[in-house]
Amino acid sequence: MFKTNYFLNPKRNEHTSLRAKVGYYAKLPLIKLGLWLGFQNIEYSYVHGCKSRLSLGTNCSTMNTIFNVISGDISIGVDTLFGHNCMVLTGTHEFYDGRRASLSDAIIEETPVSGRDINIGDGCFIGSGVIIQGKVNIGNNVIIAAGAVVTRDIPDHCFAAGVPAKIINYF
Q: Is 84 a catalytic residue?
């Protein structure tokens, strides 16, 4: 109906009965119209850039996370959960002499198209309001506290919090 960059939260997209499937597809045109008009729902995430650069594992819950895939790919492992209002950002802007590259005389691209990939492992929990800025690798079974800003790699089996995120504890 309408082409948008929103997608249904995969965890909520499990329809087990025929009645649930019929109900889902009956409401779908109204939901798409509402999204097109600007009404956001917590069941939908937004992808800024090409959706093919985002890879979600099975049984992930993305809530209303924003995925920016302009400057790299995003890969999320199985059983990873996101809280509300998270941002996973690969995009960046290049500066030259204190000005954005497109506003200066420099012959460099302002927004790179690759090299800022984000990889998130299996079984992670990303708390509400977390910002993940590429280029980063987050290991398996990692818990990131609400409001943290991840700017560096985080190894497997740990708890990270803060701005910028630091490892608090291993488990």
A: no
